[in-house]
Specification:
mainly alpha, 17 helices
Length: 397
């Protein structure tokens, strides 16, 4: 029988959250502040520079199932510890890149590091170490990691201003090499390997998991990731298209971060309940927020606050809902495979969103996002009906 470890204390949760901030800031969030300086300095076309992140997400999607299989087979601590070094290697290649091909190679390497060390890999690691008890750790970590863009963007931008983008990449890589592996090795215990059927171990199949449930959850998370990415990439432009000035659009967009963190705090204070209710709150708030922005211009600020509160719950649901509905062994094995459609969707979103914005304007983008959000509400309803959680679970509300 699999023996689970005792959960890390508050300091351990904080350190894991900080480590996620460092790896997210050096990978997924980096291009938001670094793309323009790179394009100006090198003369490379901006679409290729921004497209490097899409390449990175595609590579991450390719390696994510393997990442989960390795966590299931060997435990997650070695992989999580190595993730910072892999991202650092990508950043060093990026700093030394004298041509676009080498720059794209750097982002392919960063994509491997993202598959090794971002949320899905960490959630799988925690599931293997702590079983169903991992939910408390996941909630705390996502609360802290919610500050990733808030902290990394101004820090990286300041470093670029004073030292240039190449030196900033090299310095960030050094921080990852020095900090990530020792802290993961200290906070995460050894072990966490789970026993899964040989067929599932070899192919990452959803053995022992209802296939309908698996695809419903995977679809929900993919749609949520697409909506989040579209808002992150296009919100300022969409708000300007609705008639807001650039400063006003930036100010409105800045409301998302605090509201996302606030919803995670409320989730912690709300106490224990079945995560299907958190999922219902997530998709409902996202839909209501988008509808307000789309249909009630005077309520744009309120709509973005509501959307932010819903989107803040998304990462928690990604970690907790599968954990509550799957055996821990399958949870560990399948987290990476479930993330693949989300990552592919995120990689394609800027291209599709740009097409919609160019041909149909801000309303075209918003109406599409509203339809996607409505689809997610329906999917959550189907999960509730398909899974039919026990009355005791639903009475925790």
């Amino acid at each position: 029988m699999h023996t689970y470890h005792r959960l890390p204390g508050p300091l351990g949760i904080v350190l894991l959250g900080v480590l996620q901030i460092l790896v997210w800031g050096g990978s997924f969030f980096l291009m938001a502040v670094m793309a323009d300086p790179i394009s100006r300095d090198t003369g490379w076309p901006s679409q290729w520079v921004y497209g490097a992140l899409s390449l990175s997400l595609m590579v991450s999607a390719l390696f994510a199932p393997l990442s989960s299989r390795l966590v299931a087979r060997y435990g997650g601590r070695p992989q999580m510890a190595a993730s910072g070094a892999v991202v650092a290697v990508g950043l060093l290649i990026m700093a030394a890149s004298d041509g676009l091909a080498l720059f794209l190679l750097a982002w392919a390497v960063i994509g491997i590091g993202m598959a090794m060390g971002l949320y899905e890999a960490l959630f799988a690691t925690l599931g293997g170490l702590y079983g169903e008890g991992a939910g408390k750790a996941i909630t705390g970590i996502t609360l802290i990691a919610g500050f990733a863009s808030t902290l990394s963007w101004p820090t990286v931008a300041l470093a670029i201003e004073h030292f240039g983008w190449r030196a900033t990449c090299a310095c960030y890589a050094l921080v990852l090499i020095v900090v990530v592996a020792p802290l993961y090795w200290r906070v995460l215990p050894a072990g966490g390997r789970v026993e899964v059927p040989a067929k599932a171990q070899a192919k990452g199949e959803a053995v022992g998991v209802d296939r309908g449930l698996y695809w419903l959850l995977t679809s929900m998370f993919a749609i949520g990731a697409i909506i989040m990415t579209a808002i992150a990439v296009q919100l300022v432009a969409v708000l300007q298209g609705l008639g807001h000035s650039l400063p006003a659009a930036i100010g409105l967009a800045a409301m998302l971060g605090p509201s996302q963190v606030a919803s995670r705090v409320l989730q912690i204070l709300a106490g224990k309940r079945h995560p299907i209710w958190t999922a219902l709150a997530w998709v409902s708030l996202v839909l209501v927020g988008l509808l307000l922005v789309t249909l009630v211009p005077a309520a744009t600020a309120v709509g973005l606050l509501v959307f932010g509160c819903g989107n803040g719950l998304r990462a928690i649901v990604r970690g907790l809902l599968p954990l509550a509905m799957m055996p821990p062994a399958q949870y560990v094995l399948l987290m990476g495979r479930m993330s693949r459609p989300s990552l592919i969707g995120q990689a394609l979103t800027p291209v599709v969103g740009g097409y919609l914005f160019e041909h149909f304007g801000s309303m075209g983008v918003l109406v599409t996002l509203c339809l996607l959000a409505l689809t997610n509400v329906v999917l959550v309803g189907m999960v509730m009906r398909l899974r039919a959680c026990s009355p005791a679970d639903f009475q925790r509300l």
